[in-house]
Amino acid sequence: MRFLNRIAHVFNSSEEIFIDDKSKIVIISDLHRGDGNWNDSFAKNQNTFFTALSYYYKENYTYIELGDGDELWEIAKMEDIIQEHKDVFWLMSQFYKDNRFYMLYGNHDIVKRDPKYLTNNLYRYYNERASKYEPLFKGIKVHEGLILNYKPSGHNIFLIHGHQVDLKNSDLWKLTRFMVRYFWGPLKFLGINDPTRTAKNYRKRHSVGKKLTEWVVYKKQMLIASHNHRPMFPKVGEPPYFNDGSGVHPRCITGIEIRDGNIMLVKWSVKTNTKGVLFIARDILAGPEKLENYFK
């Protein structure tokens, strides 16, 4: 099938990163950072995400953003997103300065695959307080796919957003973006959902997961993807297709952690104690499970 060849092409052209049992990695996607208007899906989880990312920074994790970090279908200007969520971008830039940050593009931020776009929009930002431009992600490369080479066994873990199996969000992305920006976006004011959004369409969500699993079985290759906002953590013996979920769940952010040679699915959410005090906490939803168990 065409989508099998498309994913295989990304796999064969992806940069390889070597990891071992001392590596600490967190994978989060589909944050859809916006410009702070009423339709900014990320706004309600901004504090939760900042708290989670602060934890990962202090614990010396490498942060991998698995696509659709920014909502560049509904929002035309990247600078508007950066200005609205400048604290988050500042923290991400600290990961980047420490060589602990990798960014992949998805369908909603597919424009990041253009090096000229990166130069003009991500290399620097305008600091309004200082009234000058300052470095942000100078020289950054945004990937379509990444390979984590697990050195103890030599096996690979393939990372991809997943929109590549979705025709409207890959080959026809420009048409779909036009419809979202100028038609479905405005209709949200009337409470009408966007049918192009994979996360809002159960049949499309299921179809994406099914196609990605087919590729995993076909290639006998462990895969971590996103796109459909549906967390997946297979049992040992099942096809090793993982999905990190998203950062725009109504009540939490989900992600995948790899550390000490283990993999797990986690969530960050706002909780309350017996005194009614709100706090942000991390919970393990699935795992930990040894990586090597998925390579057998």
Throw out a few tags for this protein.
296 residues, alpha/beta, Purple Acid Phosphatase, chain A, domain 2, seven-stranded mixed beta sheet, five-stranded mixed beta sheet, 7 helices, 14 strands, 27% strand, globular
What does this structure look like?
With 296 residues, the protein is an alpha/beta fold. It has a single domain (2-294), classed as Purple Acid Phosphatase, chain A, domain 2 (4-Layer Sandwich), CATH 3.60.21. The chain has 7 helices and 14 strands. The protein has a 7-stranded mixed β-sheet. A 5-stranded mixed β-sheet has the order 1-8-9-10-11, with helices on one face. The radius of gyration is 19 Å and the shape is globular. The mean pLDDT is 89.
Q: How are strands sequenced across the largest beta sheet?
A: 7-4-3-2-12-13-14
| CATH topology descriptor | Purple Acid Phosphatase, chain A, domain 2
- The run of helices and strands is HEEHEHHEHEEEEEHHEEEEE
Known CATH architecture: 4-Layer Sandwich
* Percent helix: 25-40%
**Which CATH class applies here?**
Alpha Beta
Total helical elements: 7
What class would the helix/strand composition place it in? alpha/beta
Low-confidence stretches: none
* Secondary structure tally: strands: 14
Radius of gyration (Å): 19 Å
Q: Approximately how much beta-strand content do the residues carry?
A: 25-35%
Number of domains: 1
Overall pLDDT level:
89
Task: Characterize the largest beta sheet: strand count, sense, and whether it forms a barrel.
Answer: 7 strands, mixed
How far do the termini sit from each other?
26 Å
Shape: globular
